[in-house]
Design brief:
CATH class of the largest domain: Alpha Beta
Distance between the termini: 35 Å
Largest sheet: 5 strands, parallel
CATH superfamily of the largest domain: Response regulator
Number of strands: 5
CATH topology of the largest domain: Rossmann fold
Strand content: 5-15%
Strand order of the largest sheet: 2-1-3-4-5
Helix content: 40-55%
Order of helices and strands: EHEHEHHEHEHHHHHH
Number of domains: 2
Shape: globular
Length: 248
Amino acid sequence: MSPVARRSRSGTVGDVEPDVRLPISLLMLEPGLWRYLGLLHVLSGAPGINFLGDKDYNKILTLKKAPPSLKPDVVMLSYSLVVDFGLALLARMKDLFPRANILVHGYEAKIERIADALAAGANGYFLLSHEPEELFEALEIVDKGLICGPPEAVALLIERMRRRKGNAVVAMTGQVVSPYELTILKMLRDGMGNKEIAAKLGVAEVTVKSHLAKLYRRFKVRTRLQLFSYAMEHGLIPTDRPKDRSAS
């Protein structure tokens, strides 16, 4: 996948002009100097990447509030930091950079631990044993707000959500969704990104983001995955996609 392939951030639908491809603003937190330099070498030559900050990850971790100039689209977070500071570090990153999606990277290959990171707020997990070209693809997927990771980890996460849904006592008092919001939730279930949802509904991408932000606040979640999990657990959407009747 080409590292310069980028989505538009214009938030409009149906423009005659081609989409303007903007670089991913990327903040990388990696405590290992040699690993940091290796990743920097892979990514720095890509025109689709705009690096933010510096290699001193401690400066980021000690911030009480992110400066206005630091607004990453994606935060690459070393799994070693998740191990050191716990899964709560993912929530901390979301507090600092609410508009950013998080791609955890590392050599940890245990499916259960990767699923834990995804459930705690990461949008993706990239194994550093993979080819460098695959990192660009992972960044592109995570930047869209979609989930990226080993299929076994994603499957385990979905299975956990289904088990919780089966065991949960549903209490939805005062927490209903409109038909329009339900449509958006179903599109999330089907793996659609904000731009695809906007095109399907015939609205601006910023409108979709606004509805998602309202749902985040209403259900006290931080990420699309957590919203999807909440919707499944509380019976807001069916867990399976409708069957395609056209083939019958």
